[in-house]
Design goal:
15 helices; 11 strands; 2 domains; 46% helix
């Protein structure tokens, strides 16, 4: 599943690179038989005699970093998931074919969900491969001196010759690691544009305001865990590609995967199925099933946990059923009738996002339904901490895996929650009691 999600995101980013016109500005290679070569013949200009190219600041949509690059680029922002944002920077008519992609994320929210990355070099390899996958571009890389960035523990830079068909140009990648985050800037275009960009390019890590954000950010927080596992928010990825005017055949590739996922995992085949399932998750869901399951095994408000545990063991239940019942008991004890409702409510955002990509609803309809789930979440829980604990109890109940089993996927999710909760500017730093309102 992880590989499929990462591939889906890589395809989307590849479409983004193509939509920016990237390899269109590369120059045609000269026939080697003519005596000319395709090597870069651009001469460096002395800074004493030539002014630096005009520059401009481009700030990420989540306010966590800014990039200084060539003036006049067209910026398109996308929140891949909570704790992970992307900018595309397109040259337009002034610098035809020049394009850049920058990404910033916490180490627990690297897009594509690559798992543990042991070094900045691993991050650079992973991000570069993901950006180029499906773009038709190949690059021969070599390390080069990396500019420093304040607040970074390490910086890395690579340059190379970019080729697509008989056209060539330059590519440059800049990668930054801080204590909690990774950042990257990838640029590509003809020799002159890339050389100009490298003269003035820099990245600055910003102190984003903790707890600031709106309803979209709250919604992204609700789906943060599964989006991280899946590699990105398909809802926002698809919306960005639509807004950028991606080719219909390219969008259909993502839509087909979304429809298949809804069919295989949810038995959702059309718009009516989608809304029916979303309403079930908001009003009943696995939470209602868990409460009824407890009753079937003799649970009451007065039932002591040790006594309940002992009673279950006497019935020689299979391990999965035993784990599910204890998870349901703990959730019911902590959150009453809300029990594992966060597990259901978080997935409203996921299925509505897939429904939007599938063509079963509009983006607005998807967000309206997710807003209902967000409002219900605020009614049932008092904090992100409570919401996340209910979510984890729900995952344990559904997957029949103990949160205390260090080798289980349930424990992996618990570790991911803990990591995100510790981030001062992470998805759960938002005010839980903020006023939710329609922003789309």
């Amino acid at each position: 599943m992880k590989k499929k999600r990462a591939s889906l995101l890589a395809a989307a980013i590849g479409l983004m690179l193509t939509a920016c016109g990237a390899p269109g500005g590369l120059r045609e290679e000269t026939d080697m038989a003519s005596g000319s070569t395709a090597e870069n013949t651009t001469q460096e200009e002395s800074p004493d005699t030539e002014p630096l190219p005009a520059s401009q600041e481009y700030v990420s949509s989540d306010g966590t970093y800014k990039v200084i690059l060539l003036e006049g680029l067209t910026q398109t922002d996308m929140q891949l998931q909570a704790g992970s944002s992307m900018m595309s920077l397109e040259g337009g008519s002034d610098r035809t074919g020049f394009s850049g992609i920058s990404l910033g994320s916490s180490k627990s929210s690297v897009p594509g969900n690559p798992g543990d990355l042991e070094s900045l070099e691993d991050y650079a390899d992973y991000i570069t491969d993901m950006i180029l996958e499906g773009s038709g571009v190949t690059v021969s890389w070599e390390d080069t001196d990396a500019p420093s960035a304040e607040g970074a523990v390490q910086c890395l830079a690579r340059k190379g010759v970019a080729k697509v068909g008989v056209s060539r140009g330059q590519a440059y990648g800049y990668y930054v690691e801080s204590a909690d985050c990774y950042f990257s800037v990838f640029i590509m275009g003809n020799d002159d544009d890339v050389e100009d960009a490298r003269q003035i390019m820099s990245l600055e890590i910003l102190e984003a305001a903790s707890g600031q954000g709106g309803t979209r950010d709250f919604i992204n927080g609700m789906t943060a865990i599964l989006d991280s596992v899946n590699g990105a928010s398909l809802r926002e990825t698809f919306k960005m590609l639509e807004d950028m005017g991606a080719d219909e055949s390219q969008l259909e590739a993502l839509a087909s995967q979304a429809r298949q996922s809804l069919s295989d995992s949810w038995d959702i085949e059309n718009a009516a199925d989608l809304i029916e399932t979303a309403d079930w998750l908001i009003n009943e869901g696995h939470n209602q099933n868990a409460l009824e399951f407890l009753g079937d095994f003799g649970w009451t408000d007065e039932t002591d946990r040790d006594a309940f545990d002992a009673g279950l063991k006497e019935q020689n239940l299979d391990e999965g059923t035993y784990i599910s019942l204890l998870a349901a008991y703990d959730a019911r004890s902590a959150y009453g009738d809300g029990a594992i409702a966060a597990w259901d409510l978080s997935r409203v955002g996921t299925i509505m996002g897939f429904g939007y990509a599938s063509g079963y609803c509009t983006y607005e309809e998807a967000m309206d339904k997710i807003l209902e789930a967000a409002e219900k979440s605020q009614e049932l829980f008092d904090s992100w901490e409570d919401f996340n604990k209910s979510y984890l109890y729900g995952y344990s109940y559904w997957a029949e895996e103990s949160l205390d089993d260090s080798g289980s996927s349930a424990a992996e999710r618990a570790e991911l929650v803990s990591s995100m909760e510790s981030q001062s500017n992470g998805p759960f730093a938002l005010d839980w009691n903020m006023e939710l309102k329609k922003e789309w």
